[in-house]
């Protein structure tokens, strides 16, 4: 068809490029992960995640007000509990006056319209750093799912709009949905981490929450018996479809960049919103390279976020949310 058709005509200046551009990101696309800690006046930078902080409740309130002001409308909360409150069953996770429960209320008090999602998993509450109860070297499935359901009800009671189970136990979406229905929380949504891979990119997050699996002979040293093998693709579709059938309102692929093939495939298969989690390791990599002057921070950030959106993400959980929104003006 050349020379009649010349593809470069559609790229020849900024105006035509703007006109034919297929993908945009806006503040509406983002879910902002936040790390909450006990104490007063704490805003402490997480060393492996520059620009991300441990926030005590009043600083959490300040932060959500600022986020709301720049157009960000949804947060995903993670609680870092002190070691003395951890056990094998994550008992503290069910405390109606626990850190997560108070954090939900604090956000709603400071910024009532902010959408609040809560992380539902045992690892930050577990002495072993696993997403479920550990017994005889195994991470128990059904017993863990029951606790996750109680945890979800507790978060709903505190005022969470959505619960976000990040554990990968089988059947937990159904168990959680039934528990929420039984307790009258019919409007509380579930964003399921449905295709969550056993990834080394979670390292900085585990530093931040002090939640890495403990190194011991009796305890599984990684999460490979519940999180997915990154070599697999069909499994991601099965996991996602099952979560939808069990009652998930939103599904998720995690991590982001290395898994955009999975995102596209799932987007083509399902008709619920698809979230993508650009995880801590992805964030840390770019921050580190930019700090060294090896990559252009803003340009690479934008390229990554657009790529995630182009792959099919409806929602992007990202530590870059604030940077991106500021950059977009
Ligand atoms: C724990 C959880 C993890 C992340 C979100 N929830 C870590 C893990 O599974 O070990 C990772 C998020 C990130 O790396 O940014 N259930």
TrEMBL record:
GO terms of molecular function: porphobilinogen synthase activity; zinc ion binding
Keywords linked to the UniProt accession: Heme biosynthesis, Lyase, Magnesium, Metal-binding, Porphyrin biosynthesis
A GO biological process held by the record: protoporphyrinogen IX biosynthetic process
Self-association and partners: Homooctamer.
Domain of life, source organism: Bacteria
Substrates-to-products reaction catalysed: 2 5-aminolevulinate = porphobilinogen + 2 H2O + H(+)
Protein name per its UniProtKB record: Delta-aminolevulinic acid dehydratase
PANTHER family, per the entry: DELTA-AMINOLEVULINIC ACID DEHYDRATASE
Binding site for Mg(2+): 239
Protein EC: 4.2.1.24
A Pfam family reported for this protein in Swiss-Prot or TrEMBL: ALAD
